[in-house]
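Subject: Protein record for review, amino acid sequence with backbone structure tokens
Why sent: The fold of this protein is of interest and is recorded here as tokens.
Notation: Tokens come from a learned vocabulary of local backbone shapes, not from coordinates.
Attached in line: The record itself begins immediately under this heading.
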Amino acid sequence: MSQAVQIFGAVLILTAFALVQFRVLSPSSLVYLLLNLFGAGALAADAFHERQWGFFVLNGVWTLVTAASLARRRRRIAAADV
């Protein structure tokens, strides 16, 4: 199961990266941020479970930064609707 979670998380993050590099998505788009959030979150959870602390820190921070970006995006959209 661990390998499947790792592959799933990696595929999500790499898909987001490739789509931005090919200018299909913007780095601030909802799809990009969600791919990163779920990918890094899955990898962080698996790393925590497997006690791989360096990998956990990397993906935990990636998840937190992405969550903060999603919150900032949501506030910006809410402010524009006023």
The chain is about 85% helix and 0% strand. The two ends are 46 Å apart (CA to CA). Residues 2 and 49 are 9 Å apart (CA to CA). The helical segments are 2-21, 30-50, 53-81.
